[in-house]
Amino acid sequence: MEGKLRLDPGQIARARRAAAEIAADVDRFIADRTTVAVERTVLRLMGIDGVDAEGVPLPNVLVDRIRESGGIGIGAAPWVINAMLHTGASPQEVAEGVADGSLDLARIPWAGREAIRTKGKELAEAGLGLIERNRREREERIRRLGEGKQPYLYVIVATGDIYEDAVQGKAAARQGADIIAVIRSTGQSLLDYVPYGATREGYGGTFATQENFRIMRRALDEAGEETGRYIRLCNYCSGLCMPEIAAMGALERLDVMLNDALYGILFRDINMQRTLIDQSFSRMINAYAGIIINTGEDNYLTTADAVEAAHTVLASQFINEQLALLSGLPPEQMGLGHAFEMDPDLEDGLLMEIAQAQLVRQIFPDAPLKYMPPTKHMTGNIFKGHVQDAMFNLVGILTGQGIQLLGMMTEAMHTPHIHDRKLAIESAQYIFNNARHLGEEVRFRPGGRIERRAREVLDKAVAMLEEVRRIGLFRAIERGLFADVKRAFDGGRGLEGVVEKEDGYYNPFEEALRERLGLPGRGDEVDGRGSHPRETLRGHDE
């Protein structure tokens, strides 16, 4: 794809420099802070699961008790490890003891820093070993079975009943789908806990639980053996439990995760501090697990105009790229998102869609870009909708996208039926096969409409990124620079779950992940002072 559009490499470099500085500022802010979700994730990676007598997840019980005692500033891990060393119990037994009241973590004599860290490294080795085995199993299955060609055909199931999702997912795999995404039940992203067990009563989707992940993974492995190709499973680790769900997905061999740095802030009003801290640890887990993340820039175009706001999509992709790199996620796992969302009545709209898709493809050549179908301008006219989806598929294969979320002709009418997916898959297969190498044959006219549009979007993105660098990402979000949505620094859901680290803070899994992913350590950076974010991140007033 290199050289198809004549883009200014200097402008691309300027954009990356600005995005890297924005991400570095965010990372400095994150270094002094953790969240209740991060600490619950640590406990899950230790092997703690299940619920108490009231149905409250045990990771929540432990973190809440530690926080009530005033000890969460050093992390959850030291408290649990200390109890293990004193009692000889497993992490699960410690959790159950705390839940039933037979164990009070605050009253146990302290074993000492070195003993706790030695045991922590042992627990991290065991927990990450499970994730590593899953990654190797995925690689082995792909070697043995093979997989579909890119763009991967990505479809959604969303019945609310995990057992029906499994049936529909297997049907979609037989029809030709490469990725099956299980939409979460409406509102789960706002729950500050992860539901437990198999669920059959979701609304607009199915709850993301570890047991549901296990059921879908088993079903799609069966479909993979039947069809002779590996079928990827996708779910959502956005929301207030972002890192927990990332860990659950890694432990159950999910392959793709929705994992955006800004989506929850903009579209679910989750506090920006909370989300930016949570995305960092969740992406380390996804990186190590070999999971492809999908970002949510396509959603910007549902609240802002796709022509006027195209540069905000590109700017956000640059920021998501740099934040992902700081978590050790390689470009090959960055499914940066964008969408085919321009008004279909716009003259030469297809040319502008091609310009945007080709621009993104050339700037992020190694990323398995996730391309989203038309939704905002779908009217319920199924015939016109099918044509819009066909044009979207044509642009996808022309510009070499990595993941194609297939549009449904019944978009805006109802949750897709099995036959709706079949028609969408057949259309994409027809177009992808007939135009497989079209992109290799096409060159865009120098200075033509497509190239001019691409350069315009890039120039605006550079200007926006340099403005965000100047004022700080948090202030940029407050001003509504992304998706025309304004969010307050101290507003939104989940702010109470942000915790400033204290001297002695310890997260054995982050330390181990940083070492394995080749990232610099943070252990010596935390001095317990916790600089106020308004001084460190938000930049300076004009």
From TrEMBL:
Alphabetized SUPFAM superfamilies for the sequence:
Cobalamin (vitamin B12)-dependent enzymes
Q: Which Pfam families match?
A: Lys-AminoMut_A
Pinpoint the D-Lysine 5,6-aminomutase alpha subunit domain residues: 5-511
Highest taxon of the lineage: Bacteria
**An example molecular function term from Gene Ontology annotations:** cobalamin binding
- Segments for region (Disordered): 517-542
Q: What is this protein called?
A: Beta-lysine 5,6-aminomutase alpha subunit
